[in-house]
Amino acid sequence: MSSGNLITGANYLVSGAQLITKPKFRLFIIVPILVNIAIFIVLTSVMFNYFSDVVDAMVGAIPDWSWLEGFKSTIAWIISVLSAFIAIVLYGYSFSVITNILAAPFYGFLAERVEEHITGNTPPSESIVSMTVRTVGRELVKLWYFISRGFLVFIAAFILGFIPLAQFFLPVLLFLWAAWSMAIQYSDYCADNNQIGFTQFREGLAEKRFSAWGFGSLVFIGSTIPLVNIFVLPAAVAGGTILWIKEQPTSRLA
Questions:
Q1: pLDDT tens digits, residue range 62-113?
Q2: Model's pTM, two decimal places?
Q3: Considering only CA atoms, which of 4, 10, 15 is closest in space to residue 220?
């Protein structure tokens, strides 16, 4: 079975961006964009005000032990690289997580309309209250997955930082994790609308991991760019819906 394609995956975000410009989808992106603007102002201000101070404090906290002198510059480099990447990931992902929790029902409706536009079919009908409870609950499930798995990824990254040559793969590992997280986040709305369990959804997405990485990479990059991230998230919902529909067997949406 094919594991997907990086370029095809990235193109799903482009297709999603083109799709949400259609008049029939505008109602479902106005509120999320307004929420995005408010969150963007708060998170961007916090990041620029505190990042350099936090890195300086962490480097300054390295003990002045004699046996550490030979490793001090390496440790400082590891801290700087990890801190910079973690800050970018936290900024991009915090932006999307907070937005997704607050705007989850709107994104759920957007994914439903995109699915109907592409396939002509709609997920099982439910009330607005039921969809709100379901989508917010699913966001919390995803949040726990990202926290628990992300902790292990960063532990592994820290260990790699002390291994010669392996240090160069550290940013790659972190980037792939961030891309995978974004792919899960935004292609899950369609799966959730069709009442597909989270574990089953992840296993299905893993079968098309390269498409997922291609899509998630572009979403992650867009989510870390100020102003761009305001508009990229609704496009990611549409693109993730397209990815899930195009890449998964029909039986998964049955």
A1: 656 565 565 666 666 676 667 666 666 666 666 666 766 777 778 888 898 9
A2: 0.73
A3: 10
φ, ψ of residue 126 to 5 degrees: the values are -160, 165
Q: At what angle do helices 72-119 and 128-160 cross, to 10 degrees?
A: 150
User: Among 125, 155, 229, 154, which Cα is nearest to 186's?
Assistant: 229
The answer to whether the Cα torsion of 88, 93, 96, 97 is positive or negative is negative
> What's at 212, amino acid-wise?
A
Mean pLDDT of 20-32: 80
- Please, what is the Cα angle at 218 between 214 and 224, to 5 degrees? 145
- 117, 19 Cβ separation under 8 angstroms: yes
Mean pLDDT of the chain: 80
Tokens of 203: 């296993």
* Six-digit token string for 151: 């902790």
Which of 95, 110, 99 has its CA nearest to residue 190?
110
